[in-house]
Design goal:
Length: 358
């Protein structure tokens, strides 16, 4: 094998896309990854047939003229390049030598997407915090100036301040819960948790507020002795968030029905992979309300997503309740399914692996 063939082989081992061009900017070599990225071998064609971005072509010119390496970040537009369905972010380095130029392209799409998610999350949190804080500052100013001698107005404003401060606290509490769950989301719980006892704890916790809204709970349990693989505190959080929503958004004087059944794993005896075989506990929480329009259902577990922002805020919502539910259930190898019918109500179906009998 000569040196050229050997180099070709080495370049194909590398995960990055590599292109070599000559002085006239004709492509002399593309490694396997680069052919896969651009969906074609452009050998002997001009580099502009491969990458048209002016930002890249300018930097390439500069590198050729100044004979020094350059690195730039490039967003490859999938439509104009016809390469893939989604945007691709590349970190492109150009290394000049005497007659040849080496172009190394690292795919940094995942890192960039994470950056985008992170910064939009920070923007959202800041916005959510800013509103109650602005209102607290505004009312404090009013109390210490125009309403200084007005006892009645001061009382009213103080109660608004308390409400807003509590909203900020709830927001921070929910954010801390999400951070904690996210940090160990891949660690699946292995303890046996008594499902009926867990549901009973939740029901007791909501006794007052159920009474206040004249909402009753009706239970239909197929199995009275059901243990799931879980973390009880986290499962209490799951059921609490859903029941709290049902109390918040359902009609007064209505019913919340809780149904419980087991879904047997059909492939139990003939599947090769026994590691992930479970029977599932299916818990349905059904409320009576004006319902949720279909177009919103798939977005309800997104952070800060609310169908009616004003209504959620009025009810003390943070827009994070169902996000927490989704994260906890992921951690439990479980799932959440939401169905809803206008003027009837919603069904929240939770699926959690049943603990094996030991
Ligand atoms: P929030 O703190 O706003 O209640 P959640 O994440 O718990 O946030 O829920 C997201 C949104 O889903 C709510 O703002 C509300 O619009 C809708 N929602 C959740 N549960 C129900 C329900 N039981 N009935 C009607 N709408 C609901």
């Amino acid at each position: 094998m000569d040196l050229d063939q050997q180099l070709n082989l080495f370049f194909n081992f590398i995960d990055d896309s590599i292109i070599v061009i000559d002085r006239s900017q004709k492509i002399k070599f593309q490694n396997k990854q680069s052919i896969a990225l651009f969906k074609s071998d452009f050998t002997n064609q001009h580099i502009t047939n491969l990458i048209r971005a002016p930002q890249f072509l300018d930097t390439l010119e500069k590198s050729i003229n100044e004979k020094i390496p350059y690195t730039l970040e490039l967003l490859i537009d999938p439509v104009s390049q016809d390469i893939s369905q989604t945007n691709i972010f590349l970190s492109v380095s150009i290394y000049p030598s005497k007659d040849m130029y080496l172009i190394v392209m690292k795919n940094i799409t995942d890192v960039k997407n994470l950056e985008i998610v992170r910064s939009s999350f920070i923007a959202n949190v800041s916005h959510e915090m800013r509103t109650p804080l602005a209102s607290i500052i505004g009312f404090l100013e009013t109390i210490s100036s125009t309403a200084k001698d007005d006892v009645e107005a001061t009382k009213k404003f103080l109660s608004i301040i308390e409400k807003e401060a509590n909203r900020m606290k709830r927001l921070l509490d929910d954010l801390l819960i999400i951070t904690k769950i996210e940090s160990d989301e891949h660690v699946h719980p292995t303890k046996k948790v008594d499902l009926l006892n867990t549901l009973e704890i939740v029901e007791n916790n909501f006794e007052q507020s159920l009474k206040k809204n004249n909402i009753s709970i009706e239970k239909a349990y197929d199995d009275e002795n059901l243990y799931v693989l879980g973390n009880q505190d986290e499962l209490i959080q799951v059921f609490s968030n859903i029941i709290e929503n049902s109390i918040k958004y359902a009609n007064e004087n209505s019913k919340i029905r809780i149904k419980l059944r087991i879904l047997e794993d059909k492939n139990k005896d003939n599947s090769v992979n026994r590691l992930f075989q479970y029977n599932y506990a299916i818990i349905e929480l059904i409320d009576e309300s004006e319902g949720i329009p279909k177009k919103h259902l798939h977005r309800l577990t997104e952070r800060f997503y609310r169908v009616d922002k004003a209504r959620s805020k009025d009810k003390g919502g943070t827009g994070l309740g169902l996000t927490i539910v989704k994260h906890i259930l992921n951690k439990h190898r479980g799932s959440l399914d939401i169905e809803s019918e206008i003027n009837k109500g919603s069904i929240f179906t939770i699926k959690i692996p049943v603990a094996p009998i030991t």
